Q: What sequence folds into this?
């Protein structure tokens, strides 16, 4: 088609140019503004806290196709709704504005005298200026345990400073709620969890409204790793829901008697998954029907041990550790919480040489672990006792399941390589820059070996201290303004109302100080630590994605014919060889109580075998071999050990053709024989 001649009129052209110049002088058009600074809202409330970060947040992936950014693997945005609703004062957001969100609890007026939880757990008298917005004289502060540190604008500043994953752990504790005198709702843990999940979605809607509608804000709740990856590629914050509660699904124990069933666990896991929860703790602070906990130290530990007794009728019990891993020493400092104990009841004394919890992973706990695996959820092992953690890692190794997380330095560091070898993710508590750097250095070689990034768990609103100020005169202070870790944004001191926060003199007073803290780490601990942290988002999503893609292996031995050198005789039950491959974890094969013994299974056909799992009963093999054969006559050793310690063992070896698999016991670990609950044989 012939193009129509373009005939210009000089007067129209001049007028158009004049109008264009006027438009440029007055500012960009709405469409170009939206494209130029998509990260700024079109309708932020006023007044409000400032962000004090300029520059476009980074988008996309690196040259290898990996997402970039920091991971806060452990935070509690809505714990103000936990513990009866009056332990943490202030809210992350309010439709009525910042003045309504950032105000103290009524009982803290006029001078904080009744800030009881502060001085029970932290010492001092709890007194403070209760006024929040706009003066913020005494809070938020790095050492305040009872004031909101997760206001949405402060979270926004953390995102603008380079954070790309935020795990919001829905948290509560029914016993703390029941003993704390101020509350405005019930202490039921699941009721609080449901409310916190609902409010997380409400916060997403609140931020979306500022940006013009659903899906347009920077705060994005994600339900799978692919969705999270896309959100981060867009330059936004992927928010993952987790759960950290002491008695999930009602699974408390009273005098060592569980108060829940397998049906309760299935129902609870299904409900949490439907709420969007993708990671969780099975025990926290108190021993429950699922697992024993890793103890707390100092005054907080003493208070929690009292709470354990009031909730369960038992104090923590200890034993000597059998390996290098240890639980925390129990806090023995006197606590005002002891006044709540019945007359004549005292916190017991503890042997300093017995530092491990006697309680590990219970049968119900193991059922819950396997239920999480079936739902492709990630399991938090922080707060689990050494005994419980060891069993969880055994289960995951037997199934090659990668979904294990340590999010805030509550795991014994001696577990680190087992976590990394599974494909799990590790984050450190938000310590001061010097301590953070020192702890990071201890596991630096392992991160390099496994090619993984690092994370931090701030635990804001989680009843813990945060990095104190190093002082304006300290070596290598943070100098303002500074550039973000990616180099694309400029970060200045954060201003909220009438107060401006400086990391050098205020420390990590609230979540918005994360970029300042990372800059302090760079100056004190070095760029290498920051680089590892910046790779955190990719590593976290790697663990999550691998968990989603995991497929349960087929047990080639299940239901197949089995024989043994001997079987223990019992008039009431059977310990025959087939009991070790019947798919029932409660049944078992048991040998005579003498000499060498063997057990073997015929797979029915030759397979390429590369992994054998052995779930020992208390009568275990200390020295034994896993042997393979294609004809049942000629055997070769595929794997062996002389240091067996019972529990769940996983023997891995190069894929080898075999129809017959034999467990050849050479030395017993006890005075009894050899006894196996279940044997698994898996193909390469």
A:
């Amino acid at each position: 088609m012939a193009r129509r001649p373009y005939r210009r009129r000089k007067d129209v052209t001049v007028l158009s140019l004049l109008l264009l110049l006027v438009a440029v002088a007055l500012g960009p058009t709405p469409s170009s503004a939206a494209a130029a600074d998509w990260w700024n809202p079109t309708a932020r409330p006023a007044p409000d806290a400032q962000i004090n970060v300029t520059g476009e947040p980074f988008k996309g992936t690196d040259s290898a196709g990996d997402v970039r950014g920091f991971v806060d693997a452990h935070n509690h945005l809505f714990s103000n709704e936990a513990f009866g609703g009056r332990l943490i004062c202030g809210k992350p957001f309010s439709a009525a504005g910042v003045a309504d969100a950032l105000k103290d609890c009524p009982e803290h007026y006029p001078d904080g005298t009744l800030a009881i939880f502060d001085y029970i757990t932290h010492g001092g008298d709890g007194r403070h200026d209760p006024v929040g917005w706009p003066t913020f004289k005494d809070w938020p502060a790095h050492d305040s345990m009872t004031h909101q540190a997760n206001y949405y604008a402060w979270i926004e500043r953390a995102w603008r400073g380079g954070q790309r994953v935020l795990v919001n752990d829905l948290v509560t504790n029914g016993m703390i709620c029941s003993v704390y005198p101020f509350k405005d709702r019930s202490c039921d843990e699941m009721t609080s969890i449901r409310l916190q999940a609902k409010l997380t979605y409400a916060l997403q809607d609140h931020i979306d409204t500022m940006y013009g509608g659903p899906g347009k804000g920077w705060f994005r709740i994600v339900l799978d790793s692919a969705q999270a990856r896309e959100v981060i590629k867009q330059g936004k914050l992927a928010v993952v829901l987790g759960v950290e509660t002491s008695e999930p699904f009602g699974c408390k124990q009273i005098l060592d008697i569980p108060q829940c069933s397998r049906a309760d666990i299935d129902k609870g896991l299904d409900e949490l998954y439907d709420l969007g929860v993708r990671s969780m703790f099975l025990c926290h602070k108190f021993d429950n029907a699922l697992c024993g906990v890793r103890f707390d130290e100092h005054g907080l530990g003493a208070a929690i041990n009292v709470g354990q007794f009031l909730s369960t009728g038992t104090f923590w019990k200890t034993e000597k550790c059998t390996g290098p891993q240890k639980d925390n020493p129990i806090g023995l400092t006197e606590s005002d919480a002891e006044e709540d104990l019945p007359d004549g009841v005292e916190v017991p004394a503890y042997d300093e040489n017995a530092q491990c919890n006697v309680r590990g992973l219970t049968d119900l706990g193991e059922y819950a672990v396997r239920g999480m695996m079936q739902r492709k959820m990630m399991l938090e092992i922080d707060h689990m006792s050494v005994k419980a953690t060891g069993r969880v890692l055994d289960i995951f190794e037997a199934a090659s399941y990668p979904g294990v997380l340590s999010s805030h330095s509550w795991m014994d560091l001696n577990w680190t390589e087992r976590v990394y070898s599974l494909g799990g993710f590790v984050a450190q508590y938000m310590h001061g820059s010097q301590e953070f750097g020192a702890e990071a250095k201890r596991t630096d070689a392992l991160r390099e070996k496994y090619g993984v990034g690092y994370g931090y768990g701030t635990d804001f609103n989680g009843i813990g201290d945060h990095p104190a100020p190093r002082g304006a005169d300290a070596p290598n202070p943070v100098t303002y303004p500074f550039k973000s870790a990616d180099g694309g944004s400029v970060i200045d001191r954060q201003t909220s109302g009438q107060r401006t926060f400086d990391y050098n003199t205020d420390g990590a007073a609230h979540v918005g100080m994360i970029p300042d803290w990372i800059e302090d780490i760079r100056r004190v601990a070095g760029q290498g630590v920051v680089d590892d942290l910046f790779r955190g988002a990719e590593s976290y999503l790697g663990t999550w994605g691998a968990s989603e893609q995991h497929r349960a292996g087929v047990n080639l031995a299940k239901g197949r014919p089995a024989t043994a050198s001997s079987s223990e005789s019992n008039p009431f039950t059977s310990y025959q060889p087939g009991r070790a491959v019947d798919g029932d974890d409660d049944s078992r094969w048991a040998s005579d109580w003498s000499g060498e013994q063997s057990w073997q299974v015929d797979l029915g056909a030759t397979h390429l075998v590369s992994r054998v799992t052995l779930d020992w009963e208390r009568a275990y093999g200390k020295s034994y071999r896993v042997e393979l054969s294609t004809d049942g006559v000629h055997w070769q050793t595929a794997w062996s050990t002389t240091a067996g310690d019972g529990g769940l063992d996983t023997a891995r070896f190069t894929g080898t053709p075999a129809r017959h698999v034999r467990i050849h016991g050479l030395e017993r670990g006890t005075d009894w024989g050899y006894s196996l609950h279940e044997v698994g044989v898996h193909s390469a």
Q: What stands out?
A: Residues 1-35 have pLDDT under 50 and may be disordered. Residues 89 and 147 are 5 Å apart (CA to CA).
